[in-house]
Design brief:
This protein is an alpha+beta fold. The protein has one domain. Helices cover about 15% and strands about 35% of the residues. The protein is built from four helices and ten strands; from the N terminus they run ββββαβββββααβα. The chain has helices at about 55-65, 145-155, 170, 190-195, and strands at about 10-20, 20-30, 30-35, 40, 75-85, 85-95, 110-120, 125-130, 135-140, 180-190. The strands form three sheets. Strands 2-1-5-6 form a four-stranded antiparallel β-sheet, with helices on one face. Strands 8-7-10-9 form a four-stranded antiparallel β-sheet. Strands 3-4 form a two-stranded antiparallel sheet. A hairpin with a 2-residue loop joins strand 1 and strand 2 (about 20-30).
């Protein structure tokens, strides 16, 4: 299947390190210039307001914090880049003061894939690597999710109806440039590349 062309104008790249392995998380969005410390505000969906980009970034890290072991995880820089032709042009870098907060040991090589759908039912995968919590695991009902996992479903798809202007539900877009409509499921399994790196193959 051919990948959907990327139409949003900007991308956030979240860097985090777990036990000396660097992982990345990408999120698409639109921004406008502002007086925020980052120089940008989010562009929000109808019914929500744009916020300073540092507020949106810190909201994501806050939701991720209880899913990662504090002793082995470092939340790094977030890069905002502009999509020009086929290139991503760096615009700014922001570093949060928020850190991972779980006291539970991380699960080596675990890959958590949260599936959301946009307004045209295009699938969006939100993948977190080497969180706490073992694999295999699958859930498609919000009511059975543990607290931190429910927090991700909330921020992506407004699963509990409580999404704030800072949550990605307000500003994140799919590759096709549409806002997210719902959270669908989460599946935990072992990532093949990390499984070999961690000596679990």
């Amino acid at each position: 299947m051919t990948a959907t062309p990327i139409t949003p104008s900007h991308r956030l790249e979240f860097d985090y390190t777990v036990d000396h392995s660097l992982h990345k998380l990408h999120m698409y969005l639109e921004t406008v210039a502002s007086g925020d410390v980052t120089g940008f505000d989010t562009v929000a969906r109808s019914g929500h307001l744009g916020v300073g980009l540092h507020t949106a970034i810190d909201r994501v890290w806050t939701k991720l914090a209880p899913l990662f072991q504090g002793a082995s995880t470092t939340f790094g820089q977030v890069l905002l880049a502009s999509h020009v032709g086929s290139e991503w042009i760096p615009l700014m870098v922001y570093t949060t003061a928020i850190g991972a907060s779980s006291v539970v040991s991380y699960a080596p090589a675990v890959e958590n894939v949260f599936v959301a759908r946009d307004s045209s039912y295009e699938r969006l995968n939100f993948t977190l690597l080497e969180t706490v919590g073992a694999a295999p695991y699958h859930a498609s009902s919000y009511g059975v999710l543990a607290g931190p996992f429910a927090g991700i479903a909330d921020m992506l798809g407004n699963a509990a109806g409580t999404a704030t202007d800072a949550d990605p539900y307000s500003w994140q877009k799919s590759r096709g440039g549409r806002y997210l409509a719902s959270w669908q499921s989460v599946t935990a399994s072992l990532n093949r590349r990390l499984r070999r790196k961690r000596g679990l193959a």
